[in-house]
Amino acid sequence: MRIRCPRCHMNYRIPRGFLSQREKSSFQCEKCGEQIQLDIAAGKDSVPGPHASSCKRPEPQTRIPPKSSPDSAKVEALKSRIRMSLMGFIPPVAHVIMRAHAVMADPRAGIRDLAQVIETDPGITARALKVANSAYYGLSGKVTSITHASVLLGNRVLGEIISMAGIRGFLGEKLSGYGLDSEILWRHSLAVAIGSRLLAEKRCPEMAGDAFVTGLIHDAGMIMLDSHIYEKKDAFDEIMSAGPHSLLEGEKELLGIDHAVVGAEMFREWGLPLALVKPVQNHHFPLSSGGDLGYIVHMADILARKGGYGTGVDDTLYPMSSSAVEFMGYEDDELTTVEAEICEAVDKM
Ligand SMILES: [Fe+2]
Ligand SMILES: [Fe+2]
Q1: Could you say which of 134, 189, 292, 298 has the lowest number of CB atoms within 10 Å?
Q2: Under CATH, which architecture does the 73-348 domain have?
């Protein structure tokens, strides 16, 4: 389906099946922030003429500033309170992610470097061994130590396992504000991590390690927003039940800020590399990410949701960015195949 933004005339090609499933729907233009209205029932393209599919990366475009929202002083005060709560919040998991990222990025890194990452935390060691012995890596019952795992799997995979083991507790919390059970965000994050790596391996293999870690942490901002949403739970539930809203839209309406921005600010505070922070901030609107990882994580996010590894609340409300589809150079049937590959990999894990 081809759609054109009425404000900035940005063209979108969104594969069928990857649009929000509401009969009358809308999504935010990645370029100018305009709410683009869709009438799925009408089923007509809003842009006439043939579309030449392209494997080329979309041309960078001048960004039109988003329409300003009617921010009140109250919303601004709330946003600063949320931002203040991020200051100085650097849990041990931050160090694990940074160290694992550094080890994966350094071809000269050895077993000793990896051991240093996990030696301080027996819990992470135990979880890492459990993952290393999962069906996903095909080594069930064979991995008995971290050293052994690094020999069998290599540094990059071991770095992934350490990231997973380190961040498991952080992402596995119950989200009372959002009304999500524990495990939901973890399963979604894991699926997006696996999907991001899979997409990166097909398009830019050198980014596979970063893609995995970024996929794993892309929605971590929800952890930080949950308590603020819980404080205004009734208002949040009212917003969400007033009409089909994605959680992202609900956050913005209630708090004036969303989990993608909060997650990115938190990771900046933790000192994570910009290469990971920017795609986190833009995973819902990858055109502004300025990086290939933004397209990859965005596509993995939508495919994971479509494959049943979403939040179960708003999975049909996020359309896939046509910029991401063009970046990957996929046709509709290829997207369906990749979606199945992601689901198979997550099931094994
Ligand atoms: Fe998100
Ligand atoms: Fe997500």
Answers
A1: 134
A2: Orthogonal Bundle (1.10)
Ion ligand 1: residues, CB within 5 A, are 219
Give 212 Cα–ligand 1 centroid separation in angstroms: 15
The Å distance, Cα 116 to ligand 1 centre, comes to 32
pLDDT on residue 118: 67
User: Once rounded to an integer, what is the mean pLDDT over residues 109-131?
Assistant: 70
User: 301: which 2 tokens?
Assistant: 């996010």
Q: Which of 21-35, 75-89, 278-292 has the highest mean pLDDT?
A: 278-292
What is the SS3 assignment for 212?
A: helix
**Residues 143, 237: Cα–Cα separation, whole Å:** 46
Q: Which ligand is nearest to the CA of 311?
A: 2
Rounded to the nearest whole angstrom, what is the distance from the C-alpha of residue 152 to the centroid of ligand 1? 34
Give the residue from 31, 26, 25, 38 showing the smallest Cα distance to 11: 31
Tell me how far the alpha carbon of residue 138 lies from the centroid of ligand 2, in angstroms.
27
Q: What local confidence, expressed as pLDDT, does residue 294 receive?
A: 93
Q: Residue 64 — pLDDT band, cuts 50, 70, 90?
A: very low
Segments making up each domain of the chain, as ranges: 2-39, 73-348
Q: What integer pLDDT is reported at residue 302 of this predicted model?
A: 93
CB contact set of 241 (below 8 Å; sequence gap of 6+) = none
Q: What is the pLDDT of residue 278?
A: 92
